[in-house]
Structures are given as structure tokens and as C-alpha cells.
Amino acid sequence: MSHSEDVEACLPAFAGSFYVAATVAGSRARASVLRTAHGPICCPVFMPVGTQASVKSLAPDELRALDVQIVLANTYHLSMRPGPEVVARLGGLHRFMAWDRPILTDSGGFQIFSLGHLSLLTDDGVLFRSHIDGSRHFLSPERAMEIQEQLGADIIMALDECIPHTADRSYQKLAMERTHAWASRCQRAQRRSDQLLFGIVQGGMEQELRHDSALYLSEMDFPGYGIGGLSVGETKAVTYEMIEACTEVLPEVKPRYLMGVGSPEDLLEGIDRGIDMFDCVLPTRIARNGALFTRTGRLNIRNAANTLADEPIEPDCHCYTCTNFSRAYLRHLFKADELLGLRLASIHNLHFLLDLVRGARQAILDGRFPAYKRDFLGAYRSTDQAVRIAQKERWLAAVRVTSKQGSGSAHGKRVASTQK
Amino acid sequence: MSHSEDVEACLPAFAGSFYVAATVAGSRARASVLRTAHGPICCPVFMPVGTQASVKSLAPDELRALDVQIVLANTYHLSMRPGPEVVARLGGLHRFMAWDRPILTDSGGFQIFSLGHLSLLTDDGVLFRSHIDGSRHFLSPERAMEIQEQLGADIIMALDECIPHTADRSYQKLAMERTHAWASRCQRAQRRSDQLLFGIVQGGMEQELRHDSALYLSEMDFPGYGIGGLSVGETKAVTYEMIEACTEVLPEVKPRYLMGVGSPEDLLEGIDRGIDMFDCVLPTRIARNGALFTRTGRLNIRNAANTLADEPIEPDCHCYTCTNFSRAYLRHLFKADELLGLRLASIHNLHFLLDLVRGARQAILDGRFPAYKRDFLGAYRSTDQAVRIAQKERWLAAVRVTSKQGSGSAHGKRVASTQK
Description:
Strand order of the largest sheet of chain A: 4-14-13-12-11-10-6-5
Strand content of chain A: 15-25%
CATH architecture of the largest domain in chain A: Alpha-Beta Barrel
Low-confidence stretches of chain A: 1-5, 7-15, 406-412, 416-420
Number of strands of chain A: 17
Helix content of chain A: 40-55%
Largest interface: A-B, 39 and 39 residues
CATH superfamily of the largest domain in chain A: Queuine tRNA-ribosyltransferase-like
CATH class of the largest domain in chain A: Alpha Beta
Shape of chain A: globular
CATH topology of the largest domain in chain A: TIM Barrel
Oligomer: homodimer
Structural class of chain A: alpha/beta
Radius of gyration of chain A: 21 Å
Number of helices of chain A: 17
Number of domains of chain A: 2
């Protein structure tokens, strides 16, 4: 099913709008179309991450061949390098990275809060140090809007406060209220009319706070909503509970974007709970470690068992990698540190997730989503929860160390007293 | 001009043969077609190097888009990893790396001799250590044939002794004679009839030895000839002199391959002196350092001058990189250590050399090669000779250190006394 056929089949609504084409009884799952300045997006959709204006190891023509509809780029990284003014002078992100389909940028807050770049947080904004040269920068809701307008993505995100999942309830509430105040300031600061500004639901791991946050932001009437602060170390049961607490309140007529979540099981569970959009570095990051998705779980291509394996990663996979190369060749590329290995693995993993979500969308349209989800999850062995959380914490710790070596920054200081 | 149109235009001769379509008065330059088991090759031709069965950072579909006619793979590297038996079990190199056009493999000798893996050399063969695990291996002419038959390339090379350009005349003569004896043993050891075995002319930097070597091998009637041991630290004037000493003797009815030489000026000077085939890691290796070919010389993409440069590397270049991306974006990718940068730079540099050689071939067919060469060399500023030689020595030294760290091998020992 090609992108354009799919769009036609869904009767896209007028520009800037969101159209729900099909729903599922006993589920919040829906198939929809979101219109943006660079064309429509068929949802549910998985968005590959191009942190520094490049989906790692892949060129735009490969993303098109994968039928990627929209990519995400990170405002934090791009404002540090090459700088939003440079991107603006070069005609904006689309032209800069030669990608003419939709782009979404985050606000830059997540990297500052989660990766240890924070120096000082007040109601006014965040003071932080660059991971590249240690220089000081200030990010406020107004500045987050200004930068994202310079970058020129189709969907931009309000600045939110991202907190550890272990924060106590009083701080979770405080951070949520700050997020609401910042959302309002972002709305007021927005100048460009061709960008869709999404508000972000926060509220930590408290059902009631999530509910309140979703309600508060719904009343602000954003063209779409992000759900932030999930999949940050909590169990999957809690993640799914928090998603539900948000989607049962968020307006049905607006797209919902679950930020930074993208394991195969999370995609289907998220769709079932009413999520329309997902992004995650997972498929490309694990690909570069030689971990490949299959219908039965992850495969480590470096394993000796693949030395003489003449078959593709998955026999019925239609990606460029599986239609051309054996497991044995991929293993050789990884063992020999050949760059092509990183790329062929990234192509396969992205195809796997994109295809899973496209399949889910078609299943929703065909009225067979529950069976689709059940069949997939029945065959797919997820990564063990303890292993998964430990991996994530190791990765975050590694990124923090790297950042601190680069910036020499001290531990961040959060200022809990508000200026209201 | 596409590959297939070009082949049709040249009226390819029958399988296994070499057909000279045009020559140039006052020059040894010629346009020709060499038929191989995987199709014809239009010469002069530049062959990108896929050391470990992958042209670094590029996939086969990109090589096809670049109209690459033939790639080179290194027998030394492939026999260390994954091993010739593995490649054979997986159906040979073509299937292994998903490349259905011609492939050439070298004998493996060059890496052993030049990169410090040598342990002991006798007339029988070479004892060396693996750069991967330090294990001991023996390469003889017979074993070089056996391995290359397992790999299954279309063109295979006889084992030769490669010596430093500073070796004295008596050793140069000895090494040449050993190379001749080995060439004869390779001929006798060859079993497969679908591979073209090329002999290799040696003789160091001595015109008379080069002449003798070319004459000796010519009489052995190989289907083609390599010229080895050049561009190893000597001046370009000497390189060109040695090429001439070979090509004025080698039979006109056989293809001539100048091994490991590939700067733009060397390609045109080599073609002018009767060379039909070239290979070199230069375009892809310097690309990964951010050095890009232009008609006026090399460009360093990291330079600050490219920060806001909205134009492509070369305005009239038709490669994927130049038709899609600005210098500013490429600079960003290099500064941000994005993998895509390595690849876009490799595509451009390969396109540049392939196009230069295709252009030379067309110029020969059109009777305007002298002007083509003069115009190109008039505009192109070559890398300064002293800088070039110093760079090459630094690179060789770095590779030797890496290899020795990997293998823990002692200095090699050459045994000058023959067993005759």
C-alpha cells in the first residue's frame, strides 16, 4: 500500500484539519489523516528520528522508499549545531535536509532536562550548557517558539518540564502546572500560521494529574496533543495506565502523539489506547548495535549462528535489506565494522516498525484490529522488562557522561518556588 | 551516457575477449571493451574498492546509480574475515555482496607486503600473521589461486612480490624474478575457466627491469596485465616513466591495469600512456575525511567558509549529493559526525572519478582526448607532491601500527636467497 493510495482512500479533509476515517468498537484505536503544510499524514504513524537533521545513516531517498511520511528533528541539537539562524538562512529544515514531506520538531526541553545539561530552572525558563562547547544558553517558551519557527517544521511542540519518574507527587504537580503556564505562553508567542503547535500533557505517574493535565490543555484548544514524560524508566503497565488517563480525556477530534515511545508492543498498545503518532530512536539505535526486529522478537546479527545463514533477516520482509542480503553478509559487515551494516540494519528495523503501524492502520480500516494486535503480540517475544529498563538507564547514563565531558556542566538545579 | 548504451555503441566482441574500439594518434590511449563472465567492461575504467566486500558506506544500488562497471575486493581481508570457504559456501562474492556486475580480486600479496603483516618470505610463498587475531597463515601462488577461485571474481591476479620503492637494484631484480616464477605457478594452478587471470609486471623503479618484466610476462600470454608496485612513495615523474616502460612492451591486444593508482591527474596521465583499468581507495578514503573533488582541486567541506554555502559541491555535477544537498548541509553532517556525510561525500568523489574516466573514454572515441586531458589538467590543482607523499606515508604508518596492535607480529623477514 503506497502512501498516496492510502491518502486517497481516506478522503483527506481540508488543509490543517484532522479527519478520523475509522474507529474500533471496544478500543480507542482509530485510522485518521492529519493535514500539514507539507502534505497529509495517515495515522497511526511512526515517525523516524533525525536528531541532527539526518535519520542516522539514511538518505532522504531511502526514507521515501520506506514510505516514511514524517520525520522528527531535535530542536536542542539543531540549535546547538548548526544553529537555528543558519538553518533559517538556508531556507529552513525541509530544504536543508532535502526532505519535502512533513517534519516535526520537539521543543528542545527533553534533552536539557533528561540528559544532564540543565543548569538552572525557573518559571521563566531553563538555563543550560551546550554539550558541544559548554557555552550557556537560555530556553524559555518564547525562545522555543522562535527557534522552531526558524527551523520551520510542520508540527512544533510547546516547551514542557520533563521530570524523573521517581519525582514525588508535589513536584509532579508543580512541574505540570509550570508546563501548563509554558503551553499558554507558547500559544501566545506563536507567529507563523503554517505550523501546528501541539500542547504536551504531563503529570508524572499520577493518574489524577494526567487526567487534570489532559483536561486543562484540551480547553486551550491546540491542533494536537503530545503525551510527554512516559517510558522514562517506569514499568509498561504504568505507561499504559498513564496513556489511558490522557486519551480518555483528550478531544477525539485532535491527533495524539505519544512522545519517545516506539517498541513494537508499545506501538500496538498505544494505538489500542487512542494514540495516533509515535517517534522513537529505538529502531535505528538498536540497529547500529546489530539488534534486528523479527516477528518473533529481536535477533542479534553478530551471533555465530548467522555465519553461514544464507537466508534474509525475515523471509517475507520486503525491505531493501531482506530482498538483497543474507544474514551471513550482514553479520560479516558488523564483524568487519563496515558502515553499510549500520545502514542495512537501520533500513530493516525502520521498515519493520513502519510496516507494523501501516498494517495496524489497514486493520483498523478493515475492522480487524483486535485480531491484528493479538496475532502480532502472540508471536512477538518482547525484551524482558528488567533488561529493558537496565539498558535504558545505562544508555541515559552514558549520554549524560558524554555530555558532561563536553560541557563541564555541574549538576542542574531545579528551583521549586514559582514566581506566580 | 548509460552503461548499456555505451556497450552497444562499442560493438562488444565475443565472450572472454578484449576489443579496442578507438586509439589516439601520438598517444597510447585507447577506448576498449573487455568481456567477462558477468558482462562487458568499457575501458578505460575506474574500479571502486570494496576491501571487505563492501565499497565503504555504499550499497550496491548506489554503485549501480553511479554506473560503476566493476568493483575490486581484497583477497587478504576476505580470507581473514569471513574466510574464502564461507564466501564459497554462500555462493561466491557476487551473491554474498549482492553485486551482479564484474568483480576483480587482488592476490592478497600487497597487504601482506606493504602493511607489515609479513613474517617470512621464501620462494615457496609468504608466512604472515592475521591483523585480526595474530594467527599464522601461509600464502603461496597456488593458495592465492585457490582462494580467488573460492571467492569467484571475474578477474583474478597472480601473486607478486611487492617491495619498497627504495629497495636496491639487486633486490628489485630478485623480487621481479620471484614474481615471474610465481606468475607461472599461478597459471599452472588455475582450475576455473570462467576467471581471467592477470599477470603482474614488477621491476621497482628501474626502467630496464620494468621493460624486462613486461616482456617476460607478455610471452606467458595472460588475458590481461597488472602493473604493480607503483605510487608507493616515488615522485609522479618516476611513476609515469615506469608506466611507459611497461605499456610500450605489453601487447596492445590485452587490457592493462595500473594497480592502486587513482588521483584525477594520474588517471588521465595513465590513460594517455595506455592504461585501461584503475583502482584506488583514494576517492572513498579522502571522502570520509571530508575532502571532496572539484574541477579546480580538492575542497575541505569542514571549512567555516561552507557554513552558509547554499550551493552544491559543484554546480554542474549530476551526482545524488550535488543534486540534493548544499555544501552547508554536508559541512553540518561532518561537524555533527553524522554517518550520512561519509556516504554523500563518497558518492560525490566516486562520481567525480567515474565521470572523469567516462569522459576520457568518450573523448577518445570522439578523437578529442588530447584537448580533454589538457583542459582538465589546466583547471585542476593537484595536491602538492611533498604533502601527498607525506600523507601517504602517515597513512601507511597508521595502518601498520593498527595491524601490529591487532596481530602482535614482529617485523617481517625477507629471505633473499632463492631455493632454485
